[in-house]
Design a protein that fits this description.
The chain has 73 residues and is of the alpha+beta class. The protein contains 3 helices and 3 strands; from the N terminus they run H-E-E-E-H-H. It has a 3-stranded antiparallel β-sheet. A hairpin with a 7-residue loop joins strand 2 and strand 3. The longest helix has 11 residues. The radius of gyration is 11 Å and the shape is globular. The two termini are 14 Å apart.
């Protein structure tokens, strides 16, 4: 399992978009991503650095593994 430190919200959003998630809008500093067939939306905070727990929760909801997510970066 890789390390999840020093990843910005913008980098994370790009990785999720590579996995098939699409940007649907933005509210303040939070980008909302949706995916056809997924039951939940991803709300990615566009901060300069995401907390590892926040990033891990987003990865879990997206259905990816940490290793797969790190490959998409």
């Amino acid at each position: 399992m890789g390390k999840l430190g020093n990843i910005s919200g913008k980098e994370a959003a790009k990785a999720f978009e590579k996995a098939g998630w699409m940007a649907r809008g933005q509210t303040g500093s939070h980008l909302v991503l949706t995916k056809t067939g997924a039951r939940a939306n991803l709300t990615v905070p566009l901060h300069s650095e995401l907390a590892p727990g926040t990033l891990r929760a987003l990865i879990r909801v997206s259905g990816l593994t940490v290793d797969k997510f790190l490959e998409l970066l």
